[in-house]
Amino acid sequence: MPGRTFCQAWVIIRAMENQLELEHIYVDIDGTRIIDDVSFSLKPGDIGCLLGPSGCGKTTLLRTIGGFQAPSAGKLSIAGELVANSETQASPEQRRVGMVFQDLALFPHMTVRKNVAFGINGRTRKETDQRVNELLDLVSMQDYANAYPHQLSGGQQQRVALIRAMAPRPPVLLLDEPFSSQDTERRVQLAHEVREILKRDGITAVLVTHDQFEAFAIADHIGVVSEGRLRQWDDAYSLYHTPSDRFVADFIGEGVFLCGNTLEDNVIQTELGIIQGELSEDLPSGTLIELLVRPDDILHDDQSPNKATVVARDFRGADHLYTLRMPGNTRLLCLAPSHHNHPVGEEFGIRLQLDHLVIFERQDNAFS
Ligand SMILES: Nc1ncnc2c1ncn2[C@@H]1O[C@H](COP(=O)(O)OP(=O)(O)OP(=O)(O)O)[C@@H](O)[C@H]1O
């Protein structure tokens, strides 16, 4: 029947829309809830990142996707196929996901070429060689094809571990803090490189990290996790500028929270005076709130009548991050170009530049 055929095709197309889909996943270990109602999805070729503090449940979530941990409830699908719910659980081998671990786990007695070819099964010798060569080219490692892991730099080993996991074309690649042994600057650089490689090969990936700059550098979508819950699933810009709750606002980027209260439509009163702008939440007049003020919301302006005193400063090359104290004792952060060079104790003029006001209702219901 033509109608039925169309319906079936539509269902298949819809199911294939997401390469990875988690629907209301819960994980309990020894009677303790570790993952609490997590849902998110990735389209083919998307890179997702689970970001959060130590112990929040990132690795448990990754292990659940990989098939090393069973969910207590919820549904998990990979490439349109249901791989886990509370009753069924496909094994890691059946899911065919790729994994890149913190310690890279390269085989020390195998050459780079053999390491990369290791996971490729069911292909002819010619097809395997072709795929290995393609991946070695992708990461510019052809010249090292016959080298052993101990003859490579840390960054080169990283690239080999990555292409070894990518070699069998896994439906999803999982990366568990793969850059954690590197210093901060190198981590961000590696994250950019890995993103480029994954994108060129069209791989769908999920990476776990506690480093937000790494997450910003690699991911299309970032999930901020806290106490087993996914607080926000968004792009980096939205997490920074429109955090959904106070935890995300505090965890992502830098900033201070100013106490205040709502007045009328789009107007609030804070320790810095009356501020007008589009509010992130529609709260009744008189509600006690906290206003998020980022360092880039405070402009250095010598003409401004509002003066603040420098209490600390971090030189960051292109700019300074100043910690300032207002006459009423309010603490602020200000990002200023580094040629605005003010020592601790000096005063300079500042201007608040906010149009979208990120506010949260205060829970303690009192000014501090
Ligand atoms: N097998 C287990 N048995 C008991 N508790 C566990 C087990 N695995 C994880 N947990 C607990 O679950 C919580 C989340 O752990 P998980 O390793 O997922 O966090 P994480 O965010 O990856 O942390 P980190 O960044 O430190 O690696 C922790 O409190 C941990 O002690």
Description:
The protein is an alpha+beta fold and 368 residues long. It folds into 2 domains: 18-247, 3-Layer(aba) Sandwich (Rossmann fold), CATH 3.40.50; 256-361, Nucleic acid-binding proteins (OB fold (Dihydrolipoamide Acetyltransferase, E2P), Beta Barrel), CATH 2.40.50. 27% of the residues lie in helices and 33% in strands. The protein is built from 10 helices and 22 strands. The strands form 5 sheets. Strands 6-7-8-3-9-10 form a 6-stranded mixed sheet, with helices on both faces. It has a 5-stranded antiparallel sheet with strand order 13-12-11-15-22. A hairpin with a 2-residue loop joins strand 1 (20-29) and strand 2. Helix 7 (184-201) runs parallel beside helix 8 (212-218). The longest helix has 18 residues, at 184-201. The radius of gyration is 25 Å and the shape is globular. It binds adenosine-5'-triphosphate.
